[in-house]
Write a structure and sequence with these properties.
single chain, alpha+beta, Alpha-Beta Plaits, two-stranded antiparallel sheet, two-stranded antiparallel ribbon, binds iron/sulfur cluster
Amino acid sequence: MSNFLKDNQSPLDYVTIKVDENSHISIKDPKKCLNKCENKPCTYYCPTRVFSWEEQSNKIKVDYSRCIECLACPFGCPLNNIDWNFPQGGYGVVYQPNGQ
Ligand code: SF4
Ligand code: SF4
């Protein structure tokens, strides 16, 4: 994935994430990813690479601790196969002005 920020910076460089022990993202039906989703677009449209394909298990791995809540994935999955909810209880991303 090409990085849209300068100097190989990541969106993760600009935010703080309070990670819950429970994921706010899950794959509804992993078999759909394997059998019906040829290009697996979630592995490249997520700006912080939450999703990756694991060859050994033939499943999408979800590293929800990297999620900046941009809301691309619930709409970007062509098979509507991502269950996504806002983190609750004060968990999740904290945006701060000017990267402070
Ligand atoms: S885009 Fe959707 S269906 Fe395709 S691999 Fe990702 S989660 Fe699975
Ligand atoms: S909401 Fe955005 S950052 Fe979070 S997993 Fe989906 S695409 Fe990635």
